[in-house]
Amino acid sequence: MIKAPEQLSKKLGLSFNQPEWFVLALTHRSMGAKNNERLEFLGDSILGFVIAQALFEKFPQASEGVLSRLRASLVNQESLAELARLHNLGDYLILGSGELKSGGYRRASILSDAVEAIMGAIIKDQGIENCKVWILHLFADRLAALRLDNWQKDPKTRLQEYLQARQLDIPQYTLVNQAGLPHEQIFKVECAISLFDKKYIGAGVSRKKAEQQAAELMLEHIAREQK
Q1: 26: domain CATH number?
Q2: pTM of the predicted model over 0.85
Q3: Residues with catalytic annotation?
Q4: pLDDT tens digits for 51-63?
Q5: Which of 84, 180, 206, 217 could be joined to 111 by an S-S link, Cβ 3.0–4.6 Å?
Q6: Same domain, 135 and 193
């Protein structure tokens, strides 16, 4: 483990009555039998329900099929991994030596499972209602940015269309870092627009994915500014 779990729980706005639940949520199965898989199972179940309920309330006219696709767009592995990377969760994972050497702390499957395991840990420590509040806070910006008329478009397209509709310059994407072994590199790309001084950096396993995440973060910023 690179960093202390207490630092991460504070960053995430969490305070555990029994911190061992949070430590367990960060413990990958490569460490042995005592790992986060059962908590991940629990977290996965409540995540799907909470997001489904939020979408049901936000889009009263949407069909079951549309609601299902919207939910899938928010709670898929890559989406959860992006949230994990946003909070540098990989720096806090407790991994076996093999996973540590192979870069498991960057792997989308491990990151997304840990996010769901944290949700399971909150349930065990504080109950379902507190977990629901935290999930809604975690997804607040993404839920706010979601629209029925554009949710199928990728973030870069949505951001560009938003700016062009207001006769503003298109976004500028700048590669700021590229690290890792050739077959498991992580790219970091900065997104800047003329509308705000604020810039956002996205990370991904390719430059395209990093650009998409940076665009998503910028869209979330725009959604907050419009409230």
Answers
A1: 1.10.1520.10
A2: no
A3: 44, 116
A4: 999 999 999 988 8
A5: 84
A6: no
